[in-house]
Antibiotic biosynthesis monooxygenase
Amino acid sequence: MIRLSGRLVCMSEDERRAVLAHRAAHEAATRAEAGCIAFRIDDTDDPLIFDVTESFRDRAAFDAHQARTRDSAWFAATRSILRDFRVEELRD
């Protein structure tokens, strides 16, 4: 299993609005991907920071997600937002 956890750190209200405008569609598209176990983008106490957690069945599913995301409206709108992520590969 591949697990990603971390934060999206917005530097402006415009970046925050981009996350809010595209979050629901991005979450739904990701959850529908083959191999997606879980995917969440959650608010935090700081309105400019969002917690991100995602889990995929294996490296191939995670890589497919990354490729799809790069061609998405989500990425076009949020590409400049700081991503502070940690990716772990968990073995049985």
Helices lie at 13-31, 59-70, 73-78. The chain has a mean pLDDT of 96. The chain has one domain: 2-77. The chain is about 40% helix and 35% strand.
